[in-house]
Design a protein that fits this description.
- The protein has 314 residues and is mainly beta.
- The chain contains no helices and 27 strands.
- It starts with 10 loop residues before the first strand and ends with a strand.
- The chain is globular and about 70 Å long.
- A six-stranded antiparallel sheet has the order 1-3-6-13-10-11, with no helix packed on it. The chain has a five-stranded antiparallel sheet with strand order 2-15-14-8-9, with no helix packed on it. Strands 16-19-25-22-23 form a five-stranded antiparallel sheet, with no helix packed on it.
């Protein structure tokens, strides 16, 4: 899926590509950007709002992000394509052998430390309908490398796509290009009443604070643009975890996330997705945190970006 890359260092070209043997893939568009660093947005590493990890390419190397779209030659005999990270390689002058990717992007602008893959299935309405395949891969190359060749597929049926790597380094778009969060209310609650469907009936429960105080934060969430790198044009989606939304107290320290209200249950590390066709609608969410309950101004972060402030009354 094409997502606008930061100008002027993103190169997008229409390519025919060449196949070393018969491949069902034909590249239609490829965007290449060069990067010095990537923020690690994984909420299991550090505290993303306030003390996050940054991946460093080093003085002698650069990160290369390749975002490629492919047409697939679907047929009665071909109902799926699947290539793993060992079948997605980058070759360049001076390399003893083609290298594998170390990162991928499923949702912008989050780079995951995981090998890239290409997967697609033939649509049900074939041959009246077709679907493309997508690749979003991150490689590390020596700095100064200006051209390379992207190789996709097994050796006996591999497509070879020449790419030009821009000279200047750029950065990924900020996370707030894709989602906004507006804090609506912040209050202390003594007890969280829970109710979950278990077996033949409802299972009731309570959460109380053994130390500190529970704060309930009500938010309005608005999706702005598509962040799903594998989405077809017109199919828009954004994705986030509740732990990506941090609450920082008046003393400058982040509160401990307790979870998101999911309609009776409280879930931490809970995934949220918002999908829309032409225009997204705002969604309301309630998040719970454990802290001191000190009155004053609290700051709300979405990953690394501050998205609002809200007061907790005495």
């Amino acid at each position: 899926m094409r997502i606008s890359a930061p100008a002027p260092f993103a190169l997008t070209v229409a390519l025919a590509g060449t196949a070393l043997a018969e491949s069902p893939l034909t590249p239609t568009e490829v965007t290449v950007t060069r990067h010095d660093t990537f923020i690690n947005y994984d909420t299991d590493t550090g505290i993303v709002c306030c003390a996050h990890q940054v991946y460093l390419s080093g003085a002698d190397a650069d990160f290369i992000y390749i975002d490629a779209d492919f047409d697939v030659a679907w047929s009665e005999d071909l109902d799926s394509v699947s290539y793993n990270s060992r079948e997605i390689l980058l070759a360049y002058d001076g390399a003893e052998e083609p290298i594998q990717s170390w990162g991928r992007v499923a949702y912008m602008p989050v780079v995951e430390a995981s090998g890239a893959s290409v997967r697609a299935r033939r649509p049900r309405d074939f041959p009246d309908e077709t679907v493309p395949a997508f690749l979003n891969a991150v490689f590390t190359v020596p700095n100064g490398i200006a051209t390379a060749t992207l190789l996709v597929g097994p050796e006996e049926a591999r497509i070879s796509v020449p790419i030009t790597i821009p000279a200047g380094a750029t950065e990924m778009p900020p996370v707030t290009d894709y989602l906004t969060f507006t804090p609506d209310a912040l209050q202390i609650v003594d007890v969280i009443e829970t109710s979950e469907r278990r077996g033949p009936g409802e299972l009731a429960g309570q959460i109380t604070a053994g130390t500190g105080q529970i704060l309930a934060l009500d938010l309005t969430v608005q999706a702005l643009v598509n962040a799903d790198m594998d989405a077809d044009p017109g199919d828009n989606q954004v994705f986030y975890y509740n732990t990506a939304i941090a609450l920082v107290g008046p003393d400058g320290a982040p509160l401990a996330p307790m979870g998101q209200d999911t309609g009776g249950a409280i879930r931490n590390d809970y995934s949220n997705s918002i999908s829309w066709d032409t225009e997204s609608s705002p969604n309301t969410r309630r998040m719970y945190y454990l802290g001191s309950g000190t009155p004053g101004t609290y700051r709300v972060f979405y990953l690394t970006e501050e998205v609002g402030q809200i007061n907790l009354a005495p």
